[in-house]
Amino acid sequence: MEQDPTVIALGEDLGRGGVFGQYRDAQGAPLAQRFGPGRIIDTPISEATIVGAAVGMALAGCRPVVELRVVDFALCAIDEVVNQAAKNRYMFGGQGRVPVVLRMPIGIWSASAAQHSQSLEAWFAHIPGLVVVAPGTPADNHGLLLAALQSGDPVVYMEHKELWGTPGAVTPGAVVPLGKARVARPGGDVTIVSWSRQLQACEQAAEQLAAQGVQAELIDLRTIWPWDKDAVLASAARTGRLLVVHEAVQVAGFGAEIAATVAEHTGAKVARLGAPRIPVGYAPTLEAQARVSAEQIVAATQRLLQR
User: Fold this and answer.
1) Are 50 and 68 in contact (CB under 8 A)?
2) 29 exposed, middle or buried (CB, 10 Å; 0-12, 13-18, 19+)?
3) Each residue of 82-94: pLDDT tens digit?
4) How far does Cα 222 stand from its chain's mean position?
5) Strand, helix or coil at 49?
6) Residue of 216, 226, 232 lying closest to 266 (CA atoms)
7) Which residues form the catalytic set?
8) How far apart are CA 18 and CA 201, in angstroms?
9) What is the DSSP annotation of 28-48?
10) H/E stretch holding 8
11) For residues 209, 212, 217 and 218, what is the CA-based torsion angle, rounded to 10 degrees?
Protein backbone atom coordinates (compact mmCIF):
# COMPACT_ATOMS: atom_id res chain seq x y z
CA MET A 1 0.00 0.00 0.00
CA GLU A 2 2.95 2.32 0.61
CA GLN A 3 4.33 1.63 -2.87
CA ASP A 4 1.07 1.57 -4.83
CA PRO A 5 -1.71 4.06 -4.05
CA THR A 6 -4.20 2.03 -6.11
CA VAL A 7 -4.11 -0.80 -3.55
CA ILE A 8 -7.01 -0.51 -1.13
CA ALA A 9 -8.64 -2.92 1.30
CA LEU A 10 -12.31 -3.30 2.12
CA GLY A 11 -14.35 -5.60 4.31
CA GLU A 12 -15.74 -6.13 7.77
CA ASP A 13 -13.66 -5.38 10.88
CA LEU A 14 -10.74 -3.83 8.98
CA GLY A 15 -10.78 -0.66 11.06
CA ARG A 16 -9.78 -2.61 14.17
CA GLY A 17 -7.17 -4.63 12.29
CA GLY A 18 -9.14 -7.59 10.97
CA VAL A 19 -10.61 -10.59 12.76
CA PHE A 20 -7.21 -12.35 12.70
CA GLY A 21 -5.12 -9.19 13.07
CA GLN A 22 -4.04 -9.33 9.42
CA TYR A 23 -4.63 -5.60 8.92
CA ARG A 24 -2.19 -4.47 11.59
CA ASP A 25 1.39 -3.32 11.19
CA ALA A 26 4.48 -4.83 12.83
CA GLN A 27 3.83 -2.77 15.97
CA GLY A 28 0.24 -4.00 16.21
CA ALA A 29 -1.46 -0.77 15.15
CA PRO A 30 -4.43 -1.09 12.74
CA LEU A 31 -3.47 -0.13 9.19
CA ALA A 32 -6.41 2.26 9.15
CA GLN A 33 -4.37 4.58 11.36
CA ARG A 34 -1.67 4.81 8.68
CA PHE A 35 -3.71 4.83 5.48
CA GLY A 36 -7.01 6.28 6.62
CA PRO A 37 -10.62 5.21 6.07
CA GLY A 38 -10.42 5.96 2.34
CA ARG A 39 -8.00 3.06 1.75
CA ILE A 40 -8.83 0.76 4.67
CA ILE A 41 -12.58 0.67 4.30
CA ASP A 42 -14.91 -0.78 6.93
CA THR A 43 -18.00 -2.08 5.17
CA PRO A 44 -21.49 -3.17 6.13
CA ILE A 45 -22.18 -6.86 6.68
CA SER A 46 -22.99 -7.60 3.04
CA GLU A 47 -20.54 -9.80 1.18
CA ALA A 48 -22.32 -9.27 -2.15
CA THR A 49 -21.92 -5.51 -1.72
CA ILE A 50 -18.26 -5.81 -0.72
CA VAL A 51 -17.25 -7.95 -3.70
CA GLY A 52 -19.49 -6.07 -6.14
CA ALA A 53 -17.93 -2.76 -5.10
CA ALA A 54 -14.43 -4.26 -5.40
CA VAL A 55 -15.10 -5.52 -8.94
CA GLY A 56 -16.18 -2.03 -9.92
CA MET A 57 -13.11 -0.51 -8.27
CA ALA A 58 -10.85 -2.95 -10.10
CA LEU A 59 -12.42 -2.14 -13.47
CA ALA A 60 -11.88 1.55 -12.68
CA GLY A 61 -8.15 1.08 -12.11
CA CYS A 62 -7.77 0.16 -8.45
CA ARG A 63 -6.27 -3.02 -6.97
CA PRO A 64 -8.69 -3.87 -4.19
CA VAL A 65 -8.04 -6.46 -1.49
CA VAL A 66 -11.34 -7.90 -0.32
CA GLU A 67 -11.61 -9.30 3.21
CA LEU A 68 -14.38 -11.90 3.51
CA ARG A 69 -13.32 -13.00 7.02
CA VAL A 70 -13.83 -16.72 6.27
CA VAL A 71 -14.54 -18.63 3.05
CA ASP A 72 -17.88 -19.75 4.45
CA PHE A 73 -19.16 -16.17 4.19
CA ALA A 74 -17.94 -15.85 0.59
CA LEU A 75 -20.92 -17.95 -0.46
CA CYS A 76 -23.06 -14.83 0.00
CA ALA A 77 -21.05 -13.23 -2.83
CA ILE A 78 -20.75 -16.20 -5.17
CA ASP A 79 -22.44 -14.43 -8.11
CA GLU A 80 -20.06 -11.47 -7.89
CA VAL A 81 -17.05 -13.79 -7.73
CA VAL A 82 -18.09 -16.42 -10.29
CA ASN A 83 -20.17 -14.46 -12.79
CA GLN A 84 -18.60 -11.02 -12.59
CA ALA A 85 -14.97 -11.06 -11.44
CA ALA A 86 -14.03 -14.36 -13.09
CA LYS A 87 -15.67 -13.74 -16.47
CA ASN A 88 -15.25 -10.04 -17.17
CA ARG A 89 -11.92 -10.22 -18.99
CA TYR A 90 -13.18 -12.97 -21.30
CA MET A 91 -16.65 -11.60 -21.98
CA PHE A 92 -15.36 -8.13 -22.89
CA GLY A 93 -12.44 -9.28 -25.01
CA GLY A 94 -9.78 -8.15 -22.55
CA GLN A 95 -10.99 -4.54 -22.45
CA GLY A 96 -11.46 -4.83 -18.71
CA ARG A 97 -9.30 -6.51 -16.08
CA VAL A 98 -10.29 -7.36 -12.53
CA PRO A 99 -7.08 -7.35 -10.44
CA VAL A 100 -8.81 -8.08 -7.16
CA VAL A 101 -7.45 -10.22 -4.31
CA LEU A 102 -10.25 -12.04 -2.50
CA ARG A 103 -9.05 -13.19 0.91
CA MET A 104 -11.13 -16.19 1.99
CA PRO A 105 -9.59 -18.00 4.99
CA ILE A 106 -10.26 -21.73 4.75
CA GLY A 107 -10.17 -24.79 6.96
CA ILE A 108 -11.32 -26.09 10.28
CA TRP A 109 -11.45 -23.35 12.90
CA SER A 110 -11.38 -25.01 16.32
CA ALA A 111 -14.75 -25.02 18.09
CA SER A 112 -16.37 -22.97 15.31
CA ALA A 113 -18.61 -25.68 13.87
CA ALA A 114 -19.91 -26.45 10.42
CA GLN A 115 -20.57 -22.95 9.06
CA HIS A 116 -17.08 -21.66 9.91
CA SER A 117 -14.84 -24.63 9.12
CA GLN A 118 -15.03 -25.41 5.43
CA SER A 119 -12.29 -25.90 2.84
CA LEU A 120 -13.79 -24.96 -0.52
CA GLU A 121 -10.72 -24.53 -2.74
CA ALA A 122 -12.02 -27.08 -5.25
CA TRP A 123 -15.12 -24.94 -5.85
CA PHE A 124 -13.09 -21.98 -7.03
CA ALA A 125 -10.50 -24.05 -8.91
CA HIS A 126 -13.40 -25.24 -11.07
CA ILE A 127 -14.16 -21.70 -12.28
CA PRO A 128 -12.30 -20.45 -15.40
CA GLY A 129 -10.82 -17.01 -14.86
CA LEU A 130 -9.91 -17.41 -11.19
CA VAL A 131 -6.45 -17.93 -9.72
CA VAL A 132 -6.58 -19.94 -6.47
CA VAL A 133 -3.81 -19.73 -3.86
CA ALA A 134 -3.40 -21.69 -0.59
CA PRO A 135 -0.16 -20.87 1.30
CA GLY A 136 1.07 -23.06 4.13
CA THR A 137 3.99 -21.11 5.64
CA PRO A 138 4.59 -17.49 6.72
CA ALA A 139 7.21 -17.00 3.99
CA ASP A 140 4.87 -18.31 1.30
CA ASN A 141 1.99 -16.22 2.61
CA HIS A 142 4.15 -13.12 2.32
CA GLY A 143 5.52 -13.98 -1.12
CA LEU A 144 2.31 -15.29 -2.63
CA LEU A 145 0.31 -12.29 -1.41
CA LEU A 146 2.78 -10.02 -3.22
CA ALA A 147 2.37 -12.12 -6.37
CA ALA A 148 -1.42 -11.99 -6.02
CA LEU A 149 -1.33 -8.20 -5.73
CA GLN A 150 0.74 -8.03 -8.91
CA SER A 151 -1.55 -10.35 -10.85
CA GLY A 152 -3.91 -8.75 -13.34
CA ASP A 153 -6.60 -11.36 -12.69
CA PRO A 154 -8.92 -12.10 -9.76
CA VAL A 155 -7.14 -14.17 -7.13
CA VAL A 156 -9.02 -16.27 -4.59
CA TYR A 157 -6.51 -16.13 -1.75
CA MET A 158 -7.11 -18.87 0.82
CA GLU A 159 -5.14 -18.54 4.04
CA HIS A 160 -5.90 -21.09 6.75
CA LYS A 161 -7.82 -19.86 9.78
CA GLU A 162 -5.51 -21.70 12.17
CA LEU A 163 -2.22 -20.61 10.59
CA TRP A 164 -2.44 -16.91 11.51
CA GLY A 165 -0.40 -17.34 14.68
CA THR A 166 2.32 -19.44 13.04
CA PRO A 167 5.75 -17.75 13.30
CA GLY A 168 8.41 -18.08 10.63
CA ALA A 169 11.18 -16.28 8.79
CA VAL A 170 10.07 -13.89 6.04
CA THR A 171 12.21 -12.08 3.51
CA PRO A 172 10.59 -8.68 2.90
CA GLY A 173 9.75 -8.12 -0.74
CA ALA A 174 10.50 -11.71 -1.83
CA VAL A 175 7.82 -12.71 -4.35
CA VAL A 176 6.78 -16.37 -4.63
CA PRO A 177 5.62 -17.06 -8.21
CA LEU A 178 2.09 -18.27 -8.72
CA GLY A 179 1.87 -21.83 -10.01
CA LYS A 180 5.18 -23.07 -8.58
CA ALA A 181 5.20 -25.84 -5.97
CA ARG A 182 7.80 -26.27 -3.23
CA VAL A 183 9.58 -29.48 -2.30
CA ALA A 184 9.20 -29.37 1.47
CA ARG A 185 11.05 -32.65 1.98
CA PRO A 186 12.96 -34.73 -0.59
CA GLY A 187 12.48 -38.50 -0.83
CA GLY A 188 12.51 -41.39 -3.23
CA ASP A 189 9.92 -43.93 -2.03
CA VAL A 190 6.61 -42.11 -2.37
CA THR A 191 5.35 -38.64 -3.31
CA ILE A 192 2.94 -36.88 -0.94
CA VAL A 193 1.25 -33.72 -2.22
CA SER A 194 -0.59 -31.32 0.04
CA TRP A 195 -1.17 -27.63 0.77
CA SER A 196 -2.19 -25.14 3.46
CA ARG A 197 -2.36 -26.34 7.08
CA GLN A 198 -2.60 -30.00 6.07
CA LEU A 199 1.08 -29.73 5.20
CA GLN A 200 1.88 -29.80 8.93
CA ALA A 201 0.25 -33.21 9.41
CA CYS A 202 2.06 -34.44 6.29
CA GLU A 203 5.39 -33.30 7.72
CA GLN A 204 4.66 -35.20 10.93
CA ALA A 205 3.71 -38.27 8.90
CA ALA A 206 6.90 -38.02 6.85
CA GLU A 207 8.93 -38.05 10.06
CA GLN A 208 7.12 -41.17 11.26
CA LEU A 209 7.60 -42.85 7.89
CA ALA A 210 11.30 -42.00 7.91
CA ALA A 211 11.62 -43.80 11.25
CA GLN A 212 10.19 -46.85 9.47
CA GLY A 213 12.70 -46.55 6.64
CA VAL A 214 10.32 -44.91 4.14
CA GLN A 215 11.55 -41.69 2.54
CA ALA A 216 8.58 -39.61 1.41
CA GLU A 217 8.96 -36.65 -0.91
CA LEU A 218 6.61 -33.96 0.34
CA ILE A 219 5.42 -31.35 -2.15
CA ASP A 220 3.66 -28.19 -0.98
CA LEU A 221 1.45 -27.24 -3.91
CA ARG A 222 1.05 -23.59 -2.72
CA THR A 223 -1.11 -22.62 -5.72
CA ILE A 224 -4.22 -24.67 -6.46
CA TRP A 225 -4.77 -23.05 -9.84
CA PRO A 226 -2.61 -22.98 -11.79
CA TRP A 227 -1.04 -25.98 -10.08
CA ASP A 228 2.50 -27.16 -10.74
CA LYS A 229 1.84 -30.24 -12.88
CA ASP A 230 5.46 -30.52 -13.98
CA ALA A 231 6.80 -30.80 -10.44
CA VAL A 232 4.18 -33.31 -9.34
CA LEU A 233 4.43 -35.47 -12.47
CA ALA A 234 8.21 -35.56 -12.31
CA SER A 235 8.21 -36.59 -8.65
CA ALA A 236 5.48 -39.22 -9.08
CA ALA A 237 7.21 -40.69 -12.13
CA ARG A 238 10.42 -41.00 -10.12
CA THR A 239 8.94 -42.49 -6.94
CA GLY A 240 6.24 -44.55 -8.67
CA ARG A 241 3.62 -43.72 -6.02
CA LEU A 242 1.52 -40.65 -5.25
CA LEU A 243 -0.65 -39.80 -2.26
CA VAL A 244 -2.61 -36.53 -2.31
CA VAL A 245 -3.73 -35.29 1.12
CA HIS A 246 -6.07 -32.39 1.87
CA GLU A 247 -8.21 -31.12 4.73
CA ALA A 248 -11.18 -30.63 2.42
CA VAL A 249 -13.81 -33.33 2.03
CA GLN A 250 -12.32 -36.10 -0.10
CA VAL A 251 -15.39 -36.45 -2.34
CA ALA A 252 -14.81 -34.23 -5.42
CA GLY A 253 -11.86 -32.54 -3.71
CA PHE A 254 -8.99 -31.09 -5.72
CA GLY A 255 -6.94 -34.15 -4.86
CA ALA A 256 -9.01 -36.07 -7.39
CA GLU A 257 -7.81 -33.74 -10.17
CA ILE A 258 -4.18 -34.28 -9.19
CA ALA A 259 -4.57 -38.04 -8.86
CA ALA A 260 -6.32 -38.33 -12.23
CA THR A 261 -3.69 -36.22 -13.97
CA VAL A 262 -0.85 -38.31 -12.56
CA ALA A 263 -2.65 -41.54 -13.50
CA GLU A 264 -3.13 -40.26 -17.07
CA HIS A 265 0.49 -39.19 -17.58
CA THR A 266 2.59 -41.63 -15.54
CA GLY A 267 2.60 -45.25 -14.48
CA ALA A 268 2.55 -44.28 -10.80
CA LYS A 269 0.12 -45.84 -8.38
CA VAL A 270 -2.14 -43.14 -6.95
CA ALA A 271 -4.26 -42.64 -3.85
CA ARG A 272 -5.92 -39.72 -2.10
CA LEU A 273 -6.88 -38.90 1.45
CA GLY A 274 -9.30 -36.24 2.59
CA ALA A 275 -11.96 -35.59 5.17
CA PRO A 276 -15.15 -37.66 5.35
CA ARG A 277 -18.25 -36.15 3.75
CA ILE A 278 -19.69 -34.82 6.99
CA PRO A 279 -20.25 -31.33 8.41
CA VAL A 280 -17.60 -30.30 10.93
CA GLY A 281 -19.02 -30.78 14.41
CA TYR A 282 -18.78 -28.25 17.24
CA ALA A 283 -17.90 -30.77 19.96
CA PRO A 284 -14.16 -31.61 20.02
CA THR A 285 -14.86 -35.32 19.55
CA LEU A 286 -16.99 -34.64 16.48
CA GLU A 287 -14.55 -32.06 15.10
CA ALA A 288 -11.73 -34.59 15.39
CA GLN A 289 -13.61 -36.93 13.05
CA ALA A 290 -13.35 -34.31 10.28
CA ARG A 291 -9.60 -33.82 10.65
CA VAL A 292 -7.01 -35.80 8.66
CA SER A 293 -4.30 -36.85 11.11
CA ALA A 294 -0.66 -37.76 10.64
CA GLU A 295 -1.50 -41.30 11.69
CA GLN A 296 -4.09 -41.56 8.91
CA ILE A 297 -1.53 -40.29 6.40
CA VAL A 298 1.02 -42.88 7.56
CA ALA A 299 -1.56 -45.66 7.24
CA ALA A 300 -2.61 -44.50 3.76
CA THR A 301 1.02 -44.36 2.67
CA GLN A 302 1.68 -47.86 3.97
CA ARG A 303 -1.33 -49.18 2.06
CA LEU A 304 -0.08 -47.49 -1.09
CA LEU A 305 3.39 -49.00 -0.67
CA GLN A 306 1.85 -52.46 -0.41
CA ARG A 307 -0.04 -52.20 -3.71
Assistant:
1) yes
2) exposed
3) 999 999 999 999 9
4) 7
5) helix
6) 232
7) 116
8) 27
9) S-BTHHHH-TTTEEE--S-HH
10) strand 7-11
11) 10
Is pTM beyond 0.85? Reply is yes
Cα 221 from Cα 194, distance rounded (Å)? 6
Task: Tell me how far CA of residue 81 lies from CA of 17, 18, 305, in angstroms.
Answer: 24, 21, 41
End-to-end CA distance of the chain: 52
Question: For the chain, which domains are there?
Answer: 7-157 (3.40.50.970), 182-305 (3.40.50.920)
Q: What's the 3-state SS for 160-175?
A: ECCCCCCCCCCCCCCC
Helix (H, G, I), strand (E, B) or coil at 218: strand
Tens of pLDDT, residues 43-95: 999 999 999 999 999 999 999 999 999 999 999 999 999 999 999 999 999 99
Our separate counts of H helices and E strands in the chain read 12, 12
Q: How far is CA 282 from the centre of its chain?
A: 23
